[in-house]
Specification:
The chain has helices spanning 2-21, 26-58. It has one domain. It contains two helices and no strands. By secondary structure, the chain is mainly α. Helix 1 (2-21) crosses helix 2.
Length: 64
């Protein structure tokens, strides 16, 4: 859980730097941060599901 928070913080920092580099205003940065808050949990769920699928289908008996 702690590593998830660390990764999320790094993503925030990276995105903020990129947005500022391209001259995006503070309001847009805040909107993107809110959108990221909403999308990251979904992305983690999708990644976890994909990982379970790969693990399941690695076993030859499950590939019938």
């Amino acid at each position: 859980m702690e590593s998830d928070k660390k990764v999320t913080a790094e993503i925030y920092k990276y995105l903020e730097r990129e947005l500022q580099r391209y001259g995006v205003d503070e309001e847009s940065i805040n909107e993107n941060t809110i959108a990221l808050d909403n999308e990251l949990p979904r992305a983690y769920q999708q990644a976890a599901f994909a990982d379970k699928c790969v693990t399941f289908y690695r076993k030859p008996s499950n590939r019938q």
